[in-house]
Amino acid sequence: MKMVRWAVFASIIAGVGVAMAGTTIYSGSEKVNTLVIDASRGTSTIEPEIYGHFAEHLGRCVYEGFWVGEDSAIPNVRGIRTDVVEALKKLNIPVLRWPGGCFADEYHWKDGIGPRDKRPKMVNTHWGMVTETNAFGTHEFLDLCEMLGCEAYIAGNVGSGTVEELQDWIEYMTFDGDSEMANLRRTNGREKPWKIKYVGVGNENWGCGGNMTPEYYSDVYKRYATYVRNYPGSRITRVACGPNGEDMKWAESIMKNIGTRMDAYGQHYYVRGLGSWDQGKKGSATNFDEREWFALMKNTLHVDNLIRENKKIMDRYDPRGRVDLYIDEYGTWWDEEPGTKGGFLYQQNTLRDAVSAAIYLNTFNNHSDRVKMCNIAQINNVLQAMILTDKEKMLLTPTYHVFELFKVHQGAALLVSELACNGYQSGNDTLPSLNVSASKNKAGVIHITLANLDPTVPAELTCELKGVTAKSVRGRVLTDEKMNAHNTFEKPDAVKPAEFKAFELKDGTLHATLPSKSVVLLTIE
Which of 69, 109, 191, 508 stands the most exposed, by the fewest C-beta atoms within 10 Å? Predict the structure, then answer.
């Protein structure tokens, strides 16, 4: 497929241009940004699972975020809070990953079934050393998935669990015949099995999942995956642990040693501004300057390079494209909010996070030939969340609104796009000021999602559509006057989408003015 191509126009310092991978920089004054979309050239399908989510037993993601218990004063259905489910259903969530994360490789599923008052407690050693009650287990999670209308992505315990334990879990969930595990499921109230589409064979096994070498993990994967069986009527996608960030040696090793014995592998890629991972200072979610804004945009754009490097390795060992690439943990990671419990990873969510999310999603769309699932971390109250709660109160974050804008791409055909845009410069670094993806759905409707990375300068855009005659255009925009604009429980609607009218359709060409620091959706019929 032909990917989005940038031609960036930037100011030249001392007559020397600044080069970035995938970018051409020209000297000269600012020019008109141009976008050409060929509506007759649909390429890969943008799988709905690219818009997936992640829920770990971490902080208040599950407990209070989803689970409040059947006796709670907070409205709920079988213990799962109603307001959160109703809000998330509006995103058309395709898949939810659970129970971790690092928690997955210390989670023993049999502790989370049966009468809740008899379930053993455990210590959540990764996240705050709090007591895990196991009140929210397999039945509760799969009940939640049915409420949301989404697929389940189960992360199995390879770090501290046994092969038999994983085998039993699969049988418990998916076997419809007469067996010990299937009958145990029936005893616990579920007659018919669930359809489990995705199973991860471990999580971050290069780190918290066992500190394994890629060669050792490859052997472990093959052993455990053998017992992730397809019972009658079941077809499970087996997902291997992929690389951490830029560790392409891990990717190379598992492609060489596992190859097509896996259906996919999952890469993790978190981003920040100028903070230091090593020193434990990632920067504030809300108090930052433009240098920090720029750094986040640059770090987020780098996911394009990482995907390209993965694809090169995958194409070498799997030229037929049978193994998919998942980005099953990603997002912004800031310092925990002052006054919140350590290890709970609770952070605010601003317009900066929203623009970063738009870059991620556009990039995933544009690599949808290999990228088939992505899971933002995490869905409630943790890291780059969709929803924040405070007991009975709930708010939607700017990132939630980006996912709501972008849901139109789910299941649509990626369109060939060519973008030429001015540069966004900081010091000697220059980034493309705009970021885009476009798709056409089965009804022939075209959707274009654009992010203006520049927090101070609006962008004039001319968009030419090939292969179609545009009859009508409508738009929505997410922006604010302040870079750190965010929603609070006192002002939950401070940042939300509005109608976008700054465009004109003339002689088949669309002219638009994109506000600074904005995310824009254009719908063309």
Answer: 191
For the segment 227-281, what is each residue's pLDDT rounded down to a tens digit?
A: 999 999 999 999 999 999 999 999 999 999 999 999 999 999 999 998 766 667 8
> How much is the CA Rg of the chain, to the nearest whole Å?
23
CA atoms in the 13 A half-sphere facing the CB of 74: 21
Report DSSP letters for 91-112, one per residue.
TT--EEEES-SGGGGG--GGGG
* CA 430 – CA 233 distance, rounded (Å): 52
Residue 164 a catalytic site member? no
pLDDT at 35 over 50: yes
Q: Which residues contact 118 (CB under 8 A, 6 or more apart)?
A: none
pLDDT at 31: 78
Q: What mean pLDDT do residues 343-369 have?
A: 97
151 SS3 class: strand
Question: How many angstroms separate the CA atoms of 81 and 60, rounded?
Answer: 13
Question: What percent of the chain is predicted at pLDDT more than 90?
Answer: 89
Please report the pLDDT score of residue 281 as a whole number. Answer: 84
Locate tokens 């969709």: which residue? 386
Within the chain, all domains assigned CATH 3.20.20.80 are found at 48-410
What is the DSSP secondary-structure string of 442-460?
Answer: TTS-EEEEEEE--SS--EE
Of the candidates 204, 252, 404, 418, the residue annotated as catalytic is 204
The full DSSP string for 467-513 is SS----EEEEEE--SSTT-B--SSSTTSS--EEE--EEEETTEEEEE
**Residue spans in the chain of domains classed CATH 2.60.40.1180:** 5-45+414-524
Residue 132: active-site member: no
Give CA–CA dist 56/102, Å, rounded. Answer: 8
Q: Residues 269, 303: contact at Cβ < 8 Å?
A: yes
Tell me the sheet residues that pair with 431: 424
pTM over 0.90: yes
Among the listed residues 47, 329, 404, 418, the single catalytic one is 329
% of the chain beyond a pLDDT of 70: 93
> Going by DSSP bridges, is the β-strand pair 434-440/33-45 parallel, antiparallel, or unpaired?
unpaired
| CATH superfamily, domain at 5-45+414-524 | Golgi alpha-mannosidase II (2.60.40.1180)
Q: Rounded to whole angstroms, how far apart are CA atoms 494 and 490? A: 9
Q: Of all helices (H) and strands (E), which one includes residue 388?
A: strand 387-390
Residues 6+ apart with CB under 8 A from 97: 52, 53, 54, 55, 153, 155, 198, 200, 328, 375
